[in-house]
Write a structure and sequence with these properties.
Length: 207
């Protein structure tokens, strides 16, 4: 069961990459950067995927290399539901801060109605739903409390734009009207994504 530590920078601090080899249990790291000058887009998002909660919490320990990350990124842990996981150089990151009136009803509707529509988007390569979990962390960074995040991956920003103009997107908008009650709105950001597999290589450039 994959658990994700999401680290989100509001501004570009010119951060050096962490030593991913020093994070046992790390399956994959996704580095997301904004595709353009989209208002309110995060400057950088690091999506760290671990074998289980124990490995994630070890990465958040007082002796973790992540302690030295500059820029005070915001942190939050999630359970990852991966519906399709192909390579995707462009990601549409979706954030639902919440809260929902009934979180179980919200998540159930999203998983059974909205996710199947996402998987029908033309050109889609990856569909992921991330739901919040409680976790132990000694990282000196502020915490987020989003009820849900999503990642929808495509080969390019052009493919994403085509998907957003498709009839399937219109069906997704119609489903939004059927969402169980929630607050906090939603944010969507187009990001360029690099995948790093620590057992194979380390990133060779700044985050």
């Amino acid at each position: 069961m994959t658990c994700v530590l999401m680290l989100v920078w509001a501004t570009d601090e010119g951060a050096a990459p962490p030593c991913l080899a020093g994070l046992p249990g790390l399956e994959r790291a996704l580095i997301h950067r904004p595709e353009g000058a989209e208002a309110a887009a995060p400057a950088r998002v690091l999506q760290l995927e671990f074998d289980d909660i124990a490995a994630l919490e070890a990465a958040c320990a007082a002796d973790s290399p992540l302690q030295d990350l500059p820029g005070a990124p915001r942190q939050q842990a999630f359970l990852l539901r991966r519906y399709t996981g192909g390579d995707a150089a462009c990601s549409y990151l979706v954030h639902y801060p919440g809260p929902a009136q009934d979180l179980n009803a919200w998540l159930s509707h999203y998983a059974t109605h909205h996710i199947p529509l996402m998987m029908r988007l033309p050109g889609v390569r990856a569909v992921e739903m991330l739901t919040r979990i409680d976790y132990l962390s000694a990282l000196p960074f502020p915490r987020d409390t989003h009820m849900q995040r999503n990642r929808v991956g495509f080969d390019s920003p052009a493919d994403l734009a085509a998907a957003l103009a498709s009839p399937v997107r219109a069906q997704m908008r119609a489903d939004v009207d059927a969402y169980p009650p929630y607050q906090g709105g939603v944010s969507h950001f187009t990001m360029l994504t690099e995948a790093i597999f620590p057992s194979k290589k380390e990133p060779s450039h700044a985050l």
